[in-house]
Q: What sequence folds into this?
């Protein structure tokens, strides 16, 4: 009987990202923290004074809480969301990738490689018919074909890629609900 080895989560941790259970929080999130997170997820440039007015805290209290949540990794990034069409990469592809079963150790190499690939926006390690799902943006199908050829040639542990072309984004966001 052949044993299928599952990779440890450690072997597939993306640089700068980790799982929720690993956060070393100095204190649990209270309702003020949750309210602050809800607000800054929608507008990370909102002034602390405005946030404080909305939730009943002083600006300095909001700033302290934001600083703590950044230091603890609860807030992992504050970014600008760029219109793909204006940036010249109007097409989005969802690529499901199958990994060679006996080559899970190569996931660490893939993780390092994919972190440097700007067209590959997100990668998820999943259950189901594929092992990884990637969100890839490109100028056109030709550029996507070049990206997948590069994935396959530089990552021999990827044995097959199943592609879905996004016809229209119905919802695009990164908001994480914080209310219990």
A:
């Amino acid at each position: 009987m052949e044993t299928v080895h599952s990779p440890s989560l450690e072997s597939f941790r993306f640089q700068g990202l980790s799982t929720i259970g690993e956060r070393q929080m100095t204190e649990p999130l209270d309702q003020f923290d949750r309210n602050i997170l809800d607000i800054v997820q929608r507008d990370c440039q909102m002034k602390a004074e405005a946030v404080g007015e909305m939730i009943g805290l002083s600006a300095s209290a909001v700033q302290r809480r934001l600083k703590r949540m950044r230091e603890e990794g609860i807030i992992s990034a504050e970014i600008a969301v760029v219109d793909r069409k204006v940036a010249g990469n109007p097409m989005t592809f969802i690529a499901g990738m199958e990994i060679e079963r006996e080559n899970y150790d190569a996931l660490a190499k893939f993780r390092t490689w994919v972190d440097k690939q700007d067209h590959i926006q997100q990668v998820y390690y999943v259950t189901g018919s594929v092992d990884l799902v990637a969100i890839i943006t490109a100028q056109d199908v030709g550029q996507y074909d070049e990206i997948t050829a590069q994935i396959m040639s530089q990552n021999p542990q990827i044995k097959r890629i199943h592609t879905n072309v996004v016809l229209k984004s119905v919802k695009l966001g990164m908001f994480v609900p914080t209310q219990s």
Remarks:
- DSSP finds six helices and four strands in the chain.
- Residues 1-21 have pLDDT under 50 and may be disordered.
- Strands lie at 91-99, 120-125, 132-138, 158-165.
- The chain has two domains: 23-71, 82-165.
